[in-house]
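User: Reviewer 2 asked us to show a designed sequence for the structure in our supplementary figure. I'm pasting the structure tokens here. Could you produce the per-position amino acids so we can include them in the response letter?
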């Protein structure tokens, strides 16, 4: 504990081990609802080097960070564990949906038709408000980049 206080005094961010453990357990519990593979549900507290998101905490907010090979690509600040879980599970759901699309691809159809629908379905099973949010996000994407089918 003294080491964490020392790191915080230096301006370093450190997530509390109990919080990390609690988040990990909630990820596994929620992931079971949608049959997510455990390797998609790992909550990391430091960069893996290969682009997997990791989390941290500054005492007031959670940080959701994506970096690869030392380069940070994205940093989101969220105020609650629920928001953080939503971000982490969105990553797992996206991977699952694209894997599903690959197994159910229809020649000539925009692959996003299958993947987006699967993302909405899975997020809705986790939490109906998350499903609604995913639906709104995909609709926004499609306003700017509509489906493009070859058939």
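Assistant: Here is a per-position design you can include in the supplement:
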């Amino acid at each position: 504990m003294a080491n964490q206080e020392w790191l915080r005094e230096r301006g370093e961010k450190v997530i509390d081990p109990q919080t990390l453990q609690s988040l990990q357990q909630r990820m596994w519990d929620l992931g079971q609802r949608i049959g997510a593979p455990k390797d998609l549900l790992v909550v990391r507290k430091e960069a893996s080097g290969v682009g997997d998101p990791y989390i941290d905490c500054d005492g007031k907010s959670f940080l959701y960070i994506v970096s690869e090979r030392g380069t940070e690509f994205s940093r989101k600040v969220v105020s609650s564990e629920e928001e953080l879980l939503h971000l982490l599970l969105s990553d797992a759901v996206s991977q699952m949906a694209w894997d599903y699309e690959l197994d159910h691809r229809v020649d000539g159809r925009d692959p996003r038709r299958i993947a987006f629908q699967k993302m909405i379905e899975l997020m809705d099973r986790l939490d109906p408000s998350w499903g609604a949010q995913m639906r709104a996000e995909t609709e926004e994407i499609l306003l700017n980049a509509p489906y493009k089918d070859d058939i």
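For the response letter, you might also mention the following. The radius of gyration is 18 Å. The beta strands are 50-57, 62-68, 71-78.
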